[in-house]
Structures are given as structure tokens and as C-alpha cells.
Specification:
This protein starts with 21 loop residues before the first strand and ends in a 7-residue tail after the last helix. By secondary structure, it is α+β, with helices and mostly antiparallel strands. It has two domains: 151 residues, Regulatory protein AraC (Jelly Rolls, Sandwich), CATH 2.60.120.280; 102 residues, Arc Repressor Mutant, subunit A (Orthogonal Bundle), CATH 1.10.10. Helix 3 runs antiparallel to helix 4 and helix 3 packs parallel to helix 8. 44% of the residues lie in helices and 23% in strands. Strands 1, 2, 3, 4, 5, 6, 7 and 8 form an eight-stranded antiparallel sheet that branches.
Length: 285
Amino acid sequence: MPARQKDDGGRNAVPISMGSPRFRTVEVPGFVVSDVWFPGGAVLPTHTHERAVVAICLTGRIDSRLGRHVLEGQPGVLWTEPAEDSHSNVTSVDGARVLAIQPDPKREHLLDPVRSLLESPQRLHDVRLPTLAVGLRRWLTKPDPWSTLNVQAGALELLGEAGRAFHRATRAGTPPPWLSRVVDLLSSRFRECITLEELAREAGVHPMHLTRVFRRFEGCSVGQAQRELRLAWAERMIRESEEPIGRIAIRAGFADQSHFTRVFRASRGTTPGALRRSDPGRRRD
């Protein structure tokens, strides 16, 4: 576990948006939630935050340094920075988009289930977390009369899922070093027809052993993880682009639009077309 370094009296406490030219912060009962863009090559000198931070990288990369330890923040990775812990951050050349939740420490009844997650630096990778983060970000960037309730509910859901992922990781013990390489490879090539044999070669283990260890630490099968990555990418494209849904389906790695629609509806409870029509942030000229 990374060593914890407390700042002297919180004199270096700064907002989560320090160093960001573009950000949006919304405060709702129990939480401050921020959507923050950090430019490429940004270096954020040693600082602290008054509240604990639960952050997830959506695009790019941002690393947090706590003493001699580094928490690597690739897309889909969630990490925590305890309140008043001294740390610095560095982004990749492409910059990084981060969704951050800062719980209100006075709301003890809300935080008790995830207190162990908030009180020490952690790094988690779970395929469900990016999807929840993208949904929460939507309510920040496209406000409507129900945004406050939706932001609060989204923050609670994301924290709850992070707490479950942390509990699974704690019970499972320390993951083998090769697992992070497999997760990174799957995350970068999820739209391709990557095979278990390829992943196993990257790990240097037998495919059967890989499937057991992956499920133990990630909470799902390799196939489920790839499918969720494809769905999350496709959902983002549906919300943020005008690209035809059939084209998105093929690019995401699905056989055709019909197959994509069946899988999407089973997972999201709606069809891709209905999602695009109902998105409150879409332009309607």
C-alpha cells in the first residue's frame, strides 16, 4: 500500500480542478462531482484536497504520485486520494479527462460502506466502473430539472460499485503482475477479435489459468469484460456523435446492428436508437 503523507495543516489544499483549463463542478447533497480536462504534459506539483477524491480516468492518462509510489491512471482505472494526503499528478502527452467524486465527510451514514476505500490510496480496474462514470458525467454536462437527483444517485451508484470491486479485490488477495498487462491489452484492443490464446501469451500462462484468475480479480469473465468495453464505447459514440448506429455497431466489434441492438437492450434496458432519441443533451435543430 502506498505510504500516506499528510500535509501540514492542509495549507496546500486545492480544488480538484487545479491545472485544468476546462472543467465543470456540481455540488449536490453529499458530494462534489467534477468533470475535469487536464492538458497534455501537465505537471501538478505536490498538493492536497480537503475531501477524499474518488477519480476515474475516462480518456488519456494521468498518474498520481504518493511518495515513492505511483498510481497509474489509464482509461477505465479508478483510484482514490485520501483527504489531506500529499500527492502530485502528471498527465500523458494526450492529456486526460477525469471524473472525480469528493464525498462530504459529514455524511457518515453514506460513507460507512466505503470508508476503507476512502481512507487509503487504492487503484481499481473493473469493467462496470467506466460505464457508470460516463453516465454520471452526462448529467454534469447536460443539465436538466432532474440533474441534482441524477448526479447524487449516479455518485452513490459509482461509489457503491467501487466499494464492491474493492471488497472483491481485498478478498481475492494480491493479483499476479501479469493480470494488469492482460487488462491493458484487452482495454486497448477490445474492438478486435482478440483471443484467449493471445492474452495468455501476453501473460505467459495457460488460457485456463488466465480465465480463472481473471474472474477472481475482475469479477467477470474475459468475454463479459470485452463485451462491456464494447458497449461502453458504443454508448459513448451514440451519445456524442452523429455516426449511424449500424456503423457504430460494426466498429465496436459486433456482427451487425441487429446483434448489437439485442446485446445493448439486454444490458442497458433500452435500444441504441431510443437512447439517441432520448438523450437530453442531443441537439435538435
